[in-house]
Amino acid sequence: MNRKPPKNGKEYLCLAIESSCDETAAAVVTDGRNVLSNIISSQIDIHKAYGGVVPEIASRHHLNNISTVVDQTLEEAGVSFEDIDFIGVTNRPGLIGALLIGTATAKALAFALDVSLIGVHHIRGHICANYIAHPDLKPPFASLVVSGGHSTLADVKDYTEYEILGQTRDDAAGEAFDKVARVLGLGYPGGPLLDKLAKEGDPEAIPFKRVYLEKDSYDFSFSGTKTGVLNYLNGKRQKGEEFNPADVAASFQAAVVEVLVEKSVRLCKERGRDKLVLAGGVAANSCLRAELEKACWQNGIELYMPPLILCTDNAAMIGCAAYYEFLAGAEDETMTLDAYPNAEL
Predict the structure, then answer these.
(1) Alpha-carbon distance 335 to 1, whole Å?
(2) Cβ atoms within 10 A of the Cβ of 329, count?
(3) How many angstroms separate the Cα of 332 from the Cα of each of 60, 115, 119, 322?
(4) φ, ψ for residue 32, nearest 5 deg
């Protein structure tokens, strides 16, 4: 099948599906950047009782919700199944049960509609969210992707060509935020709650360790910084000493953000990139956004950030990524697409 874009300028309409974790999402996107609808069914209230995402429960709710979400996104876009030209779906990485619900739904729809199916890497989708938010954005540029499972620095050379230069070696930034939020008793989801509490604290109150690794490394390691917080809290509690949770949150957040910003700016300067794209769930962190803005302004780098609705998992970004894969001639995967819990970008 693998239909190619026509030469008469007709818009191509993509139905996109995202179910890599605990958000059941579908969107209708034309030509990669024009979002007609973007429906997200969140499971936050469901998993809050457990203090984190329970994979089996997430899969069950995806199964219950996905047909309704797809129907809602078509209705909001004012289109029918017959209008769909191809389907894009997140098939890697993520919770395997959750991914399988999305990929199985997408394969069934693509087969029934006789349209092409494009599997999308979740992190590529996050980067592509910025194409939706910024119509003028074009490669090449450097990108920092920060989420619960990923801390990645990439050199984006073209719409489908990425070179990974830095990755997390242990805890990703979002994972570290969630763990520190948990030991502070902030609840779930931890990252946003820690960000909120940090605004009331002093980021210089506690000198938590900044881990830069080897001199020229773009990789990240936040496990040691997280452990420093745990040791600080345990020491205070064992001695019966009081501590200010807001200072702990602010100081920890400052340590993580400082490393993210420093390596991102250094990558831009060493690679000669004058544009930096921020992406991922932690792109919503107010401290990270503010510090990147300041550092980029000081170094003559143009910073692109998605709006908050496009920071979290959504299907519009998957539709955008699928569109550029489609233009590049990606093969139809209707009969072959599988789901992968781990996958390199």
Answers:
(1) 11
(2) 10
(3) 28, 8, 9, 11
(4) 80, -30
Query: Which residues, listed in sequence order, are joined to residue 275 by a DSSP beta bridge?
Result: 302
Cα gap 191→180, rounded to integer Å: 9
Structural tokens at position 107: 């394969």
Q: Which of 311, 320, 321, 329 is nearest to 345 (CA)?
A: 321
Interatomic CA distance for residues 46 and 53, integer angstroms: 9
Cβ-count burial 168-197 (b if 16+ within 10 Å, e if not)? beebbbbbbbbbbbbebebebbbbbbbbeb
CA–CA separation, 288 and 310 (whole Å): 16
The two structure tokens encoding residue 267: 């990558």
The pLDDT of residue 9 = 57
Contact present, 322 and 137 (Cβ < 8 Å) = no
> What are the respective helix, strand and coil percentages of the chain, to the nearest 5?
45, 20, 35
**Helix/strand/coil for 296:** helix
Token pair in block for residue 239: 């001695």
The residue-averaged pLDDT of 149-172 equals 94
Give dist(CA 78, CA 97) in Å, integer. 31
pLDDT at 4: 47
pLDDT in tens, 213-247: 998 999 999 999 999 999 999 999 999 999 999 99
Instruction: Measure the CA–CA gap between 49 and 78, rounded to whole angstroms.
Output: 37
Do residues 124 and 345 touch, judged by C-beta distance below 8 A? yes
Q: For the beta carbon of residue 234, count every other beta carbon within 10 angstroms.
A: 11
Amino acid at 297: W
Could you list the beta-strand ranges (E) of the chain. 13-18, 23-30, 34-42, 86-92, 116-121, 141-146, 151-158, 161-166, 275-279, 302-304
Give me the residues paired with residue 28 across strands. Answer: 15, 37
Instruction: List the domains of the chain with CATH numbers.
Output: 13-129+311-327 (3.30.420.40), 140-306 (3.30.420.40)
For the stretch 328-339, pLDDT in tens is 999 999 999 999
pLDDT reported for residue 44: 82
Question: Global pTM?
Answer: 0.93
Q: What is the pLDDT of residue 1?
A: 43
